[in-house]
Structure formats: structure tokens, C-alpha cells
Amino acid sequence: MSTPQPIQTAPRRYQLFIDGQFVDAESGETFKSPNPATGETFAEVAEADKADVDKAVAAARKAMTGKWSKMSARDRGRLLYKLSQLIEQRAAELAELETSDNGKPIRESTYIDLPGVVENFEYFAGWATKIEGETIPVPGQMFNYTLREPVGVCGQIIPWNFPLLMAAWKLAPALAAGNTVVLKPAEQTPVTSLELAKLIQEAGFPEGVVNIIPGYGETAGAALASHPGIDKIAFTGSTEVGKLIAKAAAENLTKVSLELGGKAPNVIFADADLDQAVNGAMMGIFFNQGQVCCAGSRLFVEEKVKEEFLGRFKEKAEKIKVGDPMDKSTLMGPQVSEEQLNKIKSYVGVAREEGATIFAGGEQPKLEGALQNGYFFQPTIFSEVNNRMRVAQEEIFGPVSSVITFDNDDDLIRQANETMYGLSAGIWTRDITRAHRFARAVKAGVVWINTYNMFNAASPFGGYKQSGYGREMGKHALELYTQVKSVWVDLSGKPIGWFGQ
Ligand code: NAI
Ligand code: MG
After folding, report:
1. Calpha distance 169→124 (Å, rounded)
2. Whose CA is closest to atom 43 on ligand 1?
3. Which of 238, 240, 259, 419 is the pocket-test mutation for ligand 1 (most atoms within 8 Å of CB)?
4. Is the overall model pTM greater than 0.85, yes or no?
5. 99: Cβ–Cβ under 8 A, 6 or more apart, which residues?
6. Same-domain pairing of 97 and 149
7. Which residues are catalytic?
8. Each residue of 209-235: b (16+ CB within 10 Å) or e?
9. Label partner for 221 (CA 20 to 30 A): which of 33, 35, 229, 384?
10. Are residues 55 and 202 in the same domain?
11. Tens digit of pLDDT for each residue in 438-478?
12. Are residues 78 and 132 located together in one domain of the fold?
């Protein structure tokens, strides 16, 4: 039986979503978004630039004082809930579009991305009515309370690795808290954000509350980040661009939250259940073709189980089915772009030069038909890596595991923390003391014990060190999208004594 091949149809067409309307870019320009499995154009999309950013920010500013600002928290929550239901009804179609635009296997977009999107909108719908101020026990005849208010117009710039899920992580808490948004999806994957715009319209959000403006980072993204008309900028992407965003924001003192890169240690102790640990190592690095900021890309293996572990890891990695992402049995699809593929290939050269061993993979798989032009790469393992090598320190963002061995707990902790990043960490052991000691000692925003890549809308996610600042999801996300006002009321009815004489 031959494997099904993707069928190319005419490119889908999309416009910008500004002030509740679908419109062309002011310049009339468009850009192409390829299907990474074939390299053929999947969608042709209006290309936002500075003029469109200005329009979108103005629309979001106007919406901040309109119907939206007067809407009850309950009605805001109901709109978010309605949106979550509309997404759920169209989940199968959205998953297919996500897979065609991004390349991730349909089983991931169907069972991980889309359920996560629905969950986030549902979860934050519930928060809308639970954002509260406090009363503070101040001394004397005074009443002091706080109001927790929206920040205002939020710019949000998201990456291509989980296109719709990243839109949900950003939009849901911002809207629950009563903000308005200008969202810029990544140029590689604009499609599902614009499909979401249709559902936002259908759900009945007032015009201008959400504006979605696909375009390139250096143009649309930079114009948004440096715009004096926004009150907050939220970014997920590379650490390099995160620094540019922080600099641009500094000019206007715009509030910033950043979710950046990682080079997470995923640690295998000899006392771990090795079957589980092998699967955990695979989940850590091959999920989403390794294009995950919290990927367990530095695999630390205790010296005494190195041979056994690596043997099993390689055997299983080589069995992963790489191919047509629309095929339900495919476990790894293509990388998102030729640029990303080339970056990964270049690191194979770097690993060789540095003296590491290409223990598994290291090449593009041989595929047939239209898939020959796709951006596929084999599951890859570098062994004999030491923590100082570039392949241990730099984010490769592909299905590439760098294996480092260690001798004891102290040696491990030292090496695990020797990185500029601090997003996540994993540990596999049956010793609970060791596991919790590691969880405290490791400098990372998320720690997984005998599991990996677990997420929930209620659980905070974000980085230490150069992996960024601010926490998304959970009640912590609301801190990013609200500000606190302290209100003082005199209850004594007397003049202020100080200058009163
Ligand atoms: P990137 O950081 O350039 O892109 C992420 C988003 O930022 C996109 O929407 C892009 O249009 C925008 N952007 C780019 N330059 C900008 C600028 N000057 N001002 C404002 N916005 C800008 O990431 P890229 O180039 O796609 O990938 C490069 C590397 O970044 C990857 O190989 C990976 O290592 C890392 N990365 C990390 C991600 C994460 O989830 N932490 C996600 C995507 C990439
Ligand atoms: Mg870039």
C-alpha cells in the first residue's frame, strides 16, 4: 500500500483583521506561506507593515473606551466561553489547517494543540468574573482598597511552533482581564490565527477588541513592539529577538513579558525505570520535530547506564515514522521552514567539528513524491557531547538530542545549570529525595519529574535567566494583563492634621 500524498489545491487567501473587518494591507502587499511537507504555497496572506500596525493600534485604543470597557465581567467571560465552543466545533478542520501550515503531525494538532487551545479559552473565561481587588488593613480612620484594572492595549507577537496554541495563551488572559489586543502571528504560520479571527467575529466580540496582523518580524513586529500607542508587549520567540523587543519597549517604558529559548536538561539516573525514561527522552526532543522552547535537548545520562540507555534510545528513535504529517500514523513531520532545516543541518557539522559522535540520524530522510521537497529531518542523537560544546549550549530547535554523561548528583546540578537559559528541566529517577532536591536546585521555570512536556491552562509556564520573564497560564498570567490601583478614603471626616493648624 502506498502512503497517501498531500494534494495541492489553489492557495488559500487571507486578509488582515482590523477593527472587526477583514481588509487588505495598506500597501496591497501579500506574502506566501508554504506547506512545509511539500514546499508548495499553502496560503497567500496580506502583509501588514507599519501603516497597518498604526491602524490596528488605533482600533484597539478606541475599543478600550467603547462597549468592551463597559461590558460586565460575566459577559466578557461568556464571550470567551463561546469562542472556546466555536473552536471546539471546528477543531478537526483547524487541526488540518495547522498541520498544513506548520507541518506538525495531524495527531499532534488534533490531540494536543487544539484541545490546549479550547482549554485555555475555557479556563480564562472562568477567570473574567474572579479578578478582584483587596481591602488593606491600614491604620486610623482610613479605608484603603485596590482595583485590579486592565493594562490597556496589548501587542502580542507569537512564534510558529504552536501557532494557534500560542495565540490562545496570549489572547485568553488578556481578554479575560478586559484588555484589547493587536496580535502578530509568525510569518511562517499565519493561517490558524486568521481562522480564529473569523470565530472571534462570529462570537460577537466588539470591533477592535482583537486585531490580527500577519507580517514579517523586522517590519510589522518591530513596528508593533516600538509603538508608543501600546501599553504592553508580550513576546514568545528567540532570545535574540526578545532582547530587541525589550530594548524597543524601554523607549516608551512599555510593560514587557518574554517567553524565550531554552536548552533544557533532561536527566536520566541509573535508578530510573529505563523504559519510561527512554520514552521520556523521546517526548522531550522529538515532539513537534524538536521545535519546542522547553525541549529536553541536553540529555544527561548517568555514566553507569550510558550503554544500555543509549542502545535503547537509538533503537526507538530510528523506528519513529517520519513522513506525511496528514497521515494519522506519522510521528514526525517536516521542520517548519527551509531556514530551520538548514540551521539543523549546520549543527550536524558543528557537532562533528567539536568531536561529538553522530550516534543516530543526522540526515534528511528519503521520502517519495511531493514529500521530496519537504523540510524533513531524521530523529538525531549526538553522543560524546560535553556541556561546553556549542551543541550543548545553543538552541538547535530540531529533533536533535545532545547526550552528556555525569557521575553524581553534584556534578549533574552544576552542569545542568551551566547554561544561559532556564526554561525547563526533567528528571527520571525512583528516588523521591533526589528528585525534589533537583527540582529545588535547578534554575528553571518548570520541572518535570518522571514525565515531560506536561502543560495545563491552570499551571504557570515561563523562564528563569535568559529564557525570559513573566508567567503565562494559570492565575499568574493575569498579573501580566492587569495593573493595581490603590484607593484611599478618609472615614474620619476631619481635615488633614498636618497643615491644618
Ligand atoms: P523569531 O524570534 O525571529 O520569531 C518569533 C516571532 O518574532 C515571529 O512572529 C517573528 O515575526 C517575530 N520577530 C522577528 N524579528 C522581530 C523583530 N525584530 N521585532 C519584532 N518581532 C520580530 O524566531 P525565528 O527567526 O522564527 O527562529 C529562530 C530561532 O528562534 C529558532 O531556531 C529557535 O531557536 C528560536 N525560537 C524559539 C521559540 C520559542 O518558542 N521560544 C519559537 C520560535 C523560534
Ligand atoms: Mg528571526
Report:
1. 10
2. 237
3. 238
4. yes
5. 105, 106, 109, 325, 326, 333
6. yes
7. 259, 293
8. bbbbbbbebebbbbbbbbbebbbbbbb
9. 35
10. yes
11. 999 999 999 999 999 999 999 999 999 999 999 999 999 99
12. yes
